[in-house]
Design brief:
Blueprint: H1 15-32, H2 37-41, E1 44-52, E2 63-66, H3 69-81, E3 82-94, E4 98-109, E5 115-127, E6 130-138, H4 140-148
Parallel strand pairs: 1-6
Antiparallel strand pairs: 1-2, 3-4, 4-5, 5-6
Length: 149
């Protein structure tokens, strides 16, 4: 996994950028090592905004939501519904108030047995050391097709 502290080559890295980058890495660490949903949710603001565009009738985490419950539900529901095959982070870009995680993943839906592979971008907006907005961009059509069976 590579990480860049800034989108700009010659820009000095501020402490805030380091904090944002650290928060993104901590989120990935917690997700990767199977931390409890409540532990992961502590990284998020109680009033956080959640957005994963896609077919809102297929998977419970698709759509717009608010509050820490969105991340807690996502962790619990996705772990119950899918088996992770691979999750690879290609890059993390960060500035004072945003981190973008670029990668690819493959998951198997337990109900259908179908495997979905997609590239993704996770955009984390950060204020005062907490994630205040989570947005995930992926091939939501392929994900919903695999979930439907």
């Amino acid at each position: 996994m590579t990480a860049r502290a800034s989108r700009y080559k010659n820009k000095k890295v501020s402490m805030s950028q380091n904090d944002t980058l650290h928060l993104a890495r901590e989120f990935l660490r917690c997700m990767g090592n199977g931390s409890e949903a409540a532990e992961i949710a502590k990284l998020f603001s109680e009033k956080m905004e959640w957005e994963i565009a896609g077919d809102t009738g297929v998977l419970p985490w698709i759509g717009q939501k608010s509050g820490r419950a969105a991340i807690t539900d996502f962790v619990n529901d996705s772990r119950a519904m899918m088996e992770r095959i691979s999750f690879e982070v290609h890059d993390i870009l960060a500035d004072d108030d945003r981190a973008v995680i670029l990668g690819s993943l493959a998951s198997k839906f337990k109900r259908t047995g179908k495997i979905v592979k997609t590239d993704f971008a996770i955009v984390l907006s950060v204020t005062k050391g907490e994630i205040v907005r989570f947005q995930m961009l992926e091939d939501s059509f392929a994900v919903s097709q695999a979930a439907r069976g």
